Amino acid sequence: MDFVKGQLVRSKAGRDKTRTYAVLDVEGEILALADGSHRTVANPKHKKSRHVAPTATVLGNELLKSDQPISDAIKAYDAEHPF
Fold first, then answer.
1. How far apart are the C-alpha atoms of 70 and 53, rounded to whole Å?
2. Taking the domains of the chain in order of start, what are their residue ranges?
3. What is the SS3 assignment for the chain?
4. Rounded to two decimals, what is the model's pTM?
5. At CA 53, angle to CA 49 and CA 58, rounded to 5?
């Protein structure tokens, strides 16, 4: 699966299992992920692509510039798509 910048993904492994993140950057099989609260744009989580499940939702680039819009988008997605 090819991941794109802005795509929402859910963690499949680790302490953050089932947490939703937005992809900030794709570097080979490593993804830079942020959720706007625990993992910010300034300090993204780096996770291998095989440890996340892709979703069909992709955020626009204007939402990826700061933490609050990312957090709001993830909360809205989680409310519509519970675990």
1. 18
2. 7-80
3. CCCCCCEEEEECCCCCCCCEEEEEEEECCEEEEECCCCCCCCCCEEEEHHHEEEEEEECCHHHHHCHHHHHHHHHHHHHHCCC
4. 0.93
5. 95
pLDDT digits (tens, 9 = 90+) for 6-27: 999 999 988 999 999 999 999 9
Six token digits for residue 65? 């510039």
CATH number for the domain running over 7-80 = 2.30.30
Residue 70 CB neighbour total at 10 angstroms:
25
Amino acid at 37: S
What is the distance between the alpha carbons of residues 28 and 3, in angstroms, rounded to a whole number? 10
Other C-beta atoms lying within 10 Å of the C-beta of residue 44: 18
Distance CA 42, CA 53 (A): 23
Task: Report which of 80, 83, 72, 77 is spatially closest to residue 8, judged by C-alpha positions.
Answer: 77
